[in-house]
Amino acid sequence: MKAVLLIPIVACFVVKVRSKIFSRCELALIMQRWGLDGYEGYNLADWVCLAYFTSGFNTAAVTHNSDGSSEYGIFQINSRLWCSDHHSQTKDLCDLSCRGMGPCQKTDLLTDEIIDDILCLKRAVVGLEGLESWMAWRDHCHDRDLSHWVVACNL
User: Helix, strand, or coil here: 21?
Assistant: First the structure.
């Protein structure tokens, strides 16, 4: 009987959280399905461009900033406002963990499951700054022809 109870506990320690580097079109399709095309006035190419220049489409990307905050996941969502990383002060406006801290806690922004990333991203872009909040988008995507990001994706 004790062995049966130990199996779920041991499983927590052997579960590996998977990260992923998405292809451009694979990511575009997921973002389209989750309503990002046209969301807050940005087209699908804006979102794909953002993901490329923030993380290289890598869900495991983490950037540590000089202010003590960090940016997590494929969209580099900042811990200062949007998620809890358990080491910096945060408003945690998306009510999620930036990265899981225990062996059985789901790692929200660093896994290949990006639905929580997309939902948080949608919250983050509502308001005056929108995608202007991301320096990578301002520097590489804003006011440019971005059609090449999605033209061959057959969406």
Answer: strand
The tally of domains found in the chain comes to 1
pTM: 0.85
Question: Which CATH number do you get for residue 133?
Answer: 1.10.530.10
Cβ count near 155 (within 10 Å): 13
Dump the DSSP string for 68-111: S-EEETTTTEETTTT-B-SSS----TT-SBSS--STTS--SSSS
Q: Which domain holds residue 22?
A: 18-78+110-149
Q: What is the pLDDT of residue 107?
A: 53
Nearest partner of 25 among 8, 9, 45, 11, judged by Cα? 45
64 DSSP β-pair partners = 70
Distance between CA atoms of residues 38 and 36, nearest Å: 6
N- to C-terminal Cα separation, the chain: 53
* pLDDT tens per residue, range 22-68: 999 999 999 999 999 999 999 999 999 999 999 999 999 999 999 99
User: What is the residue whose two structure tokens read 């973002």?
Assistant: 31
Q: Is the pLDDT of residue 111 over 80?
A: yes
